[in-house]
Amino acid sequence: MDKLLYYAVTLIESVLGVFGVRSFYDQPRYAVVEWLDRGVEIRAYERRVAVETDARGQGDGEAFGRLFRYITGANRAGDRIAMTAPVEAGGQRIAMTVPVEQGTGGTMRFFLPHAVAAAGAPEPTEPGVRLVEVPPERIAALRFSGRITPEARAGQERVLVEVLREAGRAPAAPPFFMGYDPPFALPFLRRNEVAVRLGA
């Protein structure tokens, strides 16, 4: 994709994201296999491919920058790769930006579009950036809207854990956050989720 066109499309997607329009973003595929109380969904996710780097926690702009550089050409093919959603943040809290995942070990991750993963994602050229394959898994998720504050996230995590406990489900790892909108999206239009990975 032409560099100017790539950045123009990214800008348009960001502007539309302010109003909760997220249909342009490639998202990991899943099926809802069960509904629990209070809107909790049990989802079966397909295999995904991501690029990740170690992060220092909330607002780690350097980690985000390394991953952003990968999708804008810092890879062996020099390819520009479309952005995806959701943001996933676990363990330490991070700033909400699309598309990022942060795992419990302080890892920040961008999921790659399906077409890029199927064709073979290009190797990163920057030190500390690596490709990973995320196997199929089951995740319990609770959707909510509004601003993402530590208090709001903690409250939703408590609800999720309580519903799972009442249903006799044991999380396999600590809760994490998935956000589907850029940080400047209107709060009442945001799609936010707290989630936990479930054991087999």
Automatic annotation (TrEMBL):
SUPFAM superfamilies, sorted: Probable bacterial effector-binding domain
Tree of life domain: Bacteria
Annotated InterPro entries: Reg_factor_effector_dom_sf (IPR011256), SOUL_heme-bd (IPR006917)
This protein's name: Heme-binding protein
Natural source organism: Methylobacterium variabile
